[in-house]
Amino acid sequence: MQIPTNPQGGQIPPTPTRLKDAAVELEAAFLSEMLKSAGLGKTRQSFGGGAGEDQFSSFLIQHQAQQLARSGGVGLSEILLKSLMEKANDI
Question: Is the pLDDT of residue 5 over 60?
Answer without folding.
Answer: no
